[in-house]
Amino acid sequence: MLLGADLRASSPSIVAACASAVVAAGWTPINAGNVPTPALAAYALARRLPAIMVTGSHIPEIYNGIKFYRPDGEFLKEDEAPVRERALALLARGDVAPAVVLPAIDATIAESYVERYVAAFPGAPLAGLKVGVDLHSAVGRDLTVSILERLGAEVHSFRRADHFIAVDTEALDPADVERDRLEIEAHGLMAVVSTDGDGDRPLVIDETGRQINGDILGALTARHLGIATVVTPLSSTSAIEIGGWFDQVVRTRIGSPYVVSAMAATDPDEGPIAGFEANGGFLTESDLRLGGAVLPRLPTRDAILPIIAVLKLAVEEKQPLSKLADELPSRVMKADRLKDVDPATGASFLKGIASSPDARAAIDPRLTSPADINVIDGVRLTLVTGSVVHFRQSGNAPEMRCYVETDDAARTEKFLGELMARLTLSLKPKG
After folding, report:
1. DSSP 8-state symbol, 269
2. What residues are paired with 288 via a beta bridge?
3. Is residue 57 annotated as part of the catalytic site, yes or no?
4. How far apart (Å, rounded) are the C-alpha atoms in residues 168 and 57?
5. Is the pLDDT of residue 38 over 80?
6. pTM
7. Which are the contacts of 205, defined by CB distance < 8 A and separation ≥ 6?
8. Which distant-in-sequence residues (6+ apart) come within 8 Å of 85 by Cβ?
9. pLDDT at 430
């Protein structure tokens, strides 16, 4: 059983508890140390080993968690209930595994992740680029630098933190964007790139200091890799369909297990299959032939592939990053979140938004009579203007998320700001 962890202060103790349980069950723990989730998953999948990644991903440090991987890939929704039931039964019996000493870290797990991309993209395809890497507390920060340098880029790294910093690629702190913009300006960078805490969600800031949204990154990556069928959740931009870049676009509920299941159900004879989410995490269901090299399938979120793909695309097309998405229809999606929203409060709010014109009007009159209401995952409203507003309670934190899509960046920004202000008043009234 492979064991890995992010850089949260609580992660070592949870890894130790997992190792004790693994040994008590008669298994042998393999210590991957602090590695990105996709690095652990790729190594495990190639060897058909189960794996556990201790991480709270992109959410605040006070929350931590565990990601499970089966020998054949990502843990699916139908796997959750049996594991939960067994865990509760063990707790009820008071079973506590005796503490064990973790084995030494196996460095080949991290090394193989670097080699995965160096082998797939030979010939220094990023030569001539000067790229910034925001290190913060991303568990794969040094591997990101190593990969980009091995692919030929000149790397300027900054902001190495000795404490955990939560980076949500769907709801960036404006101060982080401004910091990256200043680094670009001061050092003549083509871009600043980074990931969230466990390295499965990419962050790309273009040469103008603006973020390229994760779903746009995904679409650009899929097109560059020659993907025929794209699988993506409801929260991704509708420009994916409108642009006509792909033979087929399959929509799912939000969450990588839904994307994984839908990819597996797609006919591989119809061409290469990949998926991505609005957070930018990119999943591949097919082995991809890239010139003379092959990139093995990795059906779990990965941040490095989309970073490499858009940088390589910019080199090949001799275009700055800000111009790459110009061929997509002008659809701009942006998301934000309201923290500390009790799930019961959030559920009541969503029920009202789905069923009551008055409840929708109380948030914003433009929501009163939408052209379509989709409740597959939260409440997604398509307005008569074509704009989209999607409210959803987070599945892994007490947060209400709001996604807005219009045909103009400034309009999206303004609309989202207005909705977030109304959400705050509605869900967290003073007093």
Report:
1. G
2. 295
3. yes
4. 9
5. yes
6. 0.85
7. 177, 180, 181, 184, 191, 192, 193, 211, 212
8. none
9. 61
For the chain, the residue count is 431
Say which of 11, 20, 57, 256 is annotated catalytic: 57
323, amino acid identity: K
Q: Are 256 and 231 in contact (CB under 8 A)?
A: no
Burial tier of 18 (Cβ tally within 10 Å: 0-12, 13-18, 19+): buried
Q: Residue 419 has which token pair?
A: 């909705």
As a whole number of Å, the CA-based R_g of the chain is 21
Return the closest-CA partner of residue 25 out of 5, 41, 1. 1
Tokens in use for 198? 């466990």
Angstrom CA distances, 350 to 244, 343, 363, 378, 387, stand at 32, 10, 12, 7, 19
pLDDT in tens, 350-394: 999 999 999 999 999 999 999 999 998 999 999 999 899 999 998
Specify whether the CB–CB gap between 248 and 268 falls below 8 A: no
Share of the chain above pLDDT 70, in %: 99
Q: What's the distance, CA 226 to chain centroid?
A: 21
> What dihedral do alpha carbons 320, 321, 324, 328 form, nearest 10°?
-140
- How far apart CA 384 and CA 395 sit, in angstroms, is 29
Give the model confidence (pLDDT) of 286-337 as tens digits: 999 987 789 999 999 999 999 999 999 999 999 999 999 787 888 888 889 8
